[in-house]
Design goal:
single chain; 381 residues; mainly beta; 3-stranded antiparallel sheet; 18 strands; 18% strand; globular; disordered N terminus
Length: 381
């Protein structure tokens, strides 16, 4: 009769009982744990983003009233935001439609003579900066090889007001954005964390959701939860926005269409909320998101809003953009979710250090290491 020997190791569990593991199981666990921490192979050129099924449209939803824009003071001394949690009535986005070749001589948006939109960016030397204890803000913009190149240090040009426990630190930013964007055949999802685009002061903006902490607001809407400063930014590893305020980014003339206040990583510009309805720009309206709130956005923001196609020229598409009367596509920052963009109408360019994090709408994949630890708690027979 053959004797079977199993070497075991006793480990006390969090419940105070001893669980025993075989040596071969421990060896297998070690190998799997090593695989869990190895870098994953790249998934696609957009930093592993999930592609949404093509331009899905929903039925119209009556009674979706957009929120009015909030007044924002001068960016030289922004007060803390006054929006209380629980007061958002954010809307939803429509899908972009194919568009003919853009006109380079639109009366609404004259293109620079050299085709480089560097003049849309701010001269940060004219502003006071974040405060005496911080570096001066830096920004350099140029165009090369069909790319818009934005280099900065991640420091805002206005007084920094701490909202999160994270400090404001200088970060070496270098963004490469397509100079001549083209509408894609399908929209694609934003990264749940990381750079989705860049404002005209050189600071990045993320999608309309927060990270997994704090747990009470995991993946929630940070604007709704009131954890943004007056310019709708805050700090994590870097200072970034989840929404954009025109008054914090150079301002606009009353009664005129909003200027460019940023660029998405697919290359399309982001304007403020006001736009022209006709080629002579005789009618200027505040454009509205078409997303509507369907649940509590304190957690899981993407599950709390849904896109509902709305009637009327003032409503935007699923990605929070539209083709203007000049034949060119652009996004618009709005007072309601998704605030800046809700998906990419073009093809986003992966940014170094950006775009990482939870992919587009859907449940968070369970990390392999969590599964391993659960398996380790199984007792041997």
């Amino acid at each position: 009769m053959r004797a079977m020997v199993s070497r075991t190791l006793g480990v006390e569990s969090s419940q105070g009982r001893t669980v025993r593991y075989s040596a071969h199981r421990l060896a297998l666990l070690a190998a799997l744990a090593l695989l869990a921490v190895m870098p994953a192979a790249p998934t696609d050129a957009a930093g592993g983003e999930v592609v949404l099924p093509a331009l899905l449209r929903g039925a119209s939803l009556p009674g979706a009233e957009p929120r009015p824009l909030r007044a924002i003071p001068s960016p030289t001394a922004p007060p803390k935001p006054s929006q209380p949690a629980g007061t958002s009535t954010a809307p939803v986005l429509p899908s972009p439609t194919p568009v003919s070749e853009p006109s380079p001589t639109s009366p609404l948006e004259p293109m620079p003579a050299d085709d480089c939109p560097d003049e849309a960016f701010m001269d940060l030397s004219a502003y006071p900066g974040a405060g005496a204890q911080y570096p001066d803000p830096e920004l350099a913009v140029s165009c090369r090889d069909d790319e818009l190149i934005i280099i900065g240090n991640g420091i805002p040009h206005y007084a920094f007001v701490p909202i999160t426990p994270n400090p404001l630190v200088a970060v070496a930013h270098e963004y490469h954005i397509p100079l001549h964007p083209v509408l894609a055949s399908e929209t694609s999802a934003l990264p749940r964390l990381g750079t989705a685009g860049v404002a005209v002061n050189g600071l990045p903006f993320f999608g309309p959701n927060e990270a997994a902490v704090p747990a009470a607001q995991a993946w929630g809407d940070p604007v709704y939860n009131g954890i943004m400063d007056a310019c709708l930014g805050h700090t994590a590893a870097e200072y970034h926005y989840h929404a954009l305020q025109v008054d914090c980014l150079g301002g606009a003339e009353p009664g005129r269409p909003s200027p460019i206040i940023g660029f998405a990583t697919d290359g399309f510009p982001i304007h403020g909320p006001f736009g022209c309805l006709d080629s002579d720009c005789e009618t200027v309206v505040e454009l509205q998101s078409s997303w509507v709130r369907i649940a509590d956005p304190r957690t899981n923001a993407w599950d709390a809003y849904a896109y509902r196609e709305q009637e009327g020229a003032a409503y935007l598409d699923r990605c929070n953009g539209r083709v203007g009367p000049d034949g060119r596509y652009r996004y618009h920052a709005t007072s309601g979710f998704p605030y800046i963009i809700g998906c990419y109408a073009g093809t986003p360019k992966a940014q170094a250090g950006g775009g990482a994090g939870r992919p587009g709408p859907g449940p968070r994949p369970r990390p392999l290491i969590e599964t391993l630890f659960d398996w380790m708690r199984w007792p041997l027979p």
